[in-house]
Design goal:
Elements (H helix, E strand, L loop, with lengths): L4 E6 L3 H12 L3 E7 L6 H9 L3 E2 L4 H5 L6 E4 L3 H13 L3 E4 L7 E2 L2 H8 L4 E3 L3 H16 L3 E11 L5 H5 L1 H16 L3 E9 L7 E9 L4 H16 L5 E10 L2 E8 L11 H23 L11
Parallel strand pairs: 1-2, 1-4, 2-3, 4-5, 5-7, 6-7, 8-9
Antiparallel strand pairs: 8-10, 10-12, 11-12
Helix pairs in contact: 1-2, 1-10, 5-10, 6-8, 6-9, 6-10
């Protein structure tokens, strides 16, 4: 049995390229294919400099050589993933979907990683979802009657590539679905702000909630615990504003600084979703080491 799980990355934009650099540091994963469409893209050029196996044929490269990988990170777009999903399912690949496609089980490693490892397809929601849903989860765990959850995320405009801009509607819908799923709230709203400020701002997300009877001491403890879990795989995650009660609303603010792997540290939106995806994939790899028959593509060793 090979020590590392072979993974392919579909999509060579900001997210895919940043993820590539992170995968190369992993003790459990090996990037056996980096696939996009544009040979002149900065991501492809970066992969060439790193000596990574690459293709400009997109998913066709996996179709032509299905044994090249066991797990696929889809870093393309929600629309493209709708085309990729049935193909990858037929090929028996584990899929970690980083697009806001709303398909597959929603995965937030700080909340439900172990439960997700029995699935062959998981969805990482969105960058804002990875920041806000753990806070929403903590609110829902402390308060059994959550009327409303709202998450407002601001990211540097320079960190948002073409696919992110194309998927703004899907981002909103999928983030809202994640907030509802993990908090149990009756209503949810998500907002994304692309901030053109120069110098670039760091990613920041504020979560607002309305509950019938706020339990602030218990909530502060729950949010602190979930933030510590997130920091175990996203070192730059920290609380700027611990839970406070303001005008009848619970308010919590988190900030994410990136590792600066591909874009500078302001691009915490890349780190929050890529580190979450990496944690999930490494979870599959560790599970395979314990039981090789369980998580190989199509359920075969």
């Amino acid at each position: 049995m090979e020590k590392k799980l072979k993974v392919a990355i579909l999509g060579t934009g900001n997210i895919g390229t940043d993820l590539l650099i992170k995968v190369r540091r992993s003790s459990f994963l090996e990037c056996s294919l980096f696939a996009g469409r544009n040979f002149a893209s900065p991501g492809i050029q970066k992969a060439m400099n790193l000596g990574v196996p690459l293709s400009t044929r997109g998913i066709e490269a996996i179709i032509e050589d299905p044994l090249c990988c066991d797990l696929v990170f889809d870093c393309t777009s929600a629309l493209s993933h709708q085309e990729h999903a049935p193909i990858l399912e037929q090929l028996g690949k584990i899929v970690v979907d980083l697009t806001p496609s709303k398909t597959g089980r929603m995965c937030v490693p700080a909340i439900n990683l172990d439960e997700c490892l029995v699935e062959h397809k998981i969805n990482m929601i969105t960058c804002g979802g990875q920041v806000s849903t753990p806070i929403a989860y903590a609110i829902g765990q402390v308060h059994k009657d959550v009327e409303y959850i709202e998450a407002v995320s601001s990211i540097a405009s320079r960190s948002a590539g073409p696919a992110t801009r194309l998927n703004l509607d899907e981002y909103i819908e999928t983030t809202q679905q994640g907030l509802l799923c993990f908090s149990g709230a009756r209503h949810a709203k998500a907002i994304l702000i692309l901030n053109p400020a120069d110098p670039c701002i760091h990613m920041q997300t504020t979560v607002f909630a309305k509950v019938a009877e706020p339990r602030m001491d218990a909530l502060k403890a729950a949010v602190a615990e979930i933030a510590e879990r997130i920091r175990s795989y996203v070192p730059g995650y920290r609380l700027l504003v611990e839970p406070v009660l303001e005008n009848g609303r619970i308010v919590v603010t988190a900030r994410v600084s990136g590792l600066g792997d591909y874009l500078p540290e302001y691009a915490g939106n890349l780190d929050i979703i890529n580190c979450a995806a990496l944690a999930a994939a490494e979870g599959y790899a560790k599970a395979r080491m314990l039981s090789p028959m369980v998580v190989m593509g199509g359920g075969h060793a």
